[in-house]
Design goal:
The chain is mainly α. About 60% of the residues lie in helices and about 5% in strands. A two-stranded antiparallel ribbon has the order 1-2. Strands 3-4 form a two-stranded antiparallel sheet.
Length: about 220
């Protein structure tokens, strides 16, 4: 799962009368991977390229007990929720941000081969939809497009920002699926991931700043 991780952020931004900051929710949606790629830089968690390990992704995510265990994800979700509460003093906003972080593990469970854990040690879990592109591709695109449409249906504003965000998300996903496969894991792997996440988050921040909520009477 790549751009599909941002689907919960788009939905969470408009499920309450108060409109949370979309840029922050985009950070929450990929917070697990922000931390993973930072730990990868320092060798705390590890992955390697194994061509053909799945039909859609050549990465063997063989050692990520802190970020991609359910316990680790829950700890990260709690930490970000506390930070949002301290910043905004809004329990509902903090709960939403934490829930978006937690959604990362649940969405990964659908597509990953068995490399996720409950608490950092076996058994390893994953339903393996990366080996079934006919399901994984429409699932990811459908989740993202559906929640973006839902977000736009409940807000009003200019169309340039959502068009830009949609173009960036589609471009990033196309590179992920159809670009040249990586040949090794190095510092550039993390830096490229940070760039992609930052680019999408910046576009989401702009979108959130230009939209206002629609409220129905009655």
């Amino acid at each position: 799962m790549f751009i599909g991780h941002w689907a919960p952020a788009l939905a969470a931004a408009v499920v309450t009368r108060r409109q949370p900051r979309l840029g922050l929710l985009f950070i929450a949606a990929q917070f697990v991977d922000w931390i993973f790629f930072a730990l990868l830089l320092f060798g705390v968690e590890r992955m390697r390229v194994v061509p053909g390990i799945t039909a859609m992704n050549p990465m063997d995510l063989y050692d990520m007990p802190y970020t991609h265990s359910l316990l680790g994800t829950a700890i990260l979700a709690t930490g970000l929720a506390i930070a949002v509460w301290v910043w905004r003093r809004d329990f509902g906003y903090a709960l939403l941000a934490g829930g978006v972080v937690l959604s990362h593990w649940l969405l990964d469970l659908l597509v990953h081969r068995p490399d996720l854990t409950i608490a950092g040690s076996p058994p390893k879990l994953g339903l393996g939809l990366w080996d079934v592109p006919a399901i994984a591709i429409p699932l990811e695109l459908g989740l993202t497009a559906g929640t973006l449409a839902f977000y736009l249906s409940r807000t009003r504003g200019p169309m340039a920002p959502p068009i830009l965000l949609a173009a960036i998300l589609l471009g990033l996903q196309a590179i992920n699926w159809f670009g040249p496969p990586p040949t090794e894991v190095n510092a550039g792997t993390s830096l490229l991931a940070f760039f992609a996440y930052a680019l999408a988050t910046a576009a989401a921040w702009w979108l959130g700043m230009t939209r206002t909520r629609k409220f129905r009477r009655g």
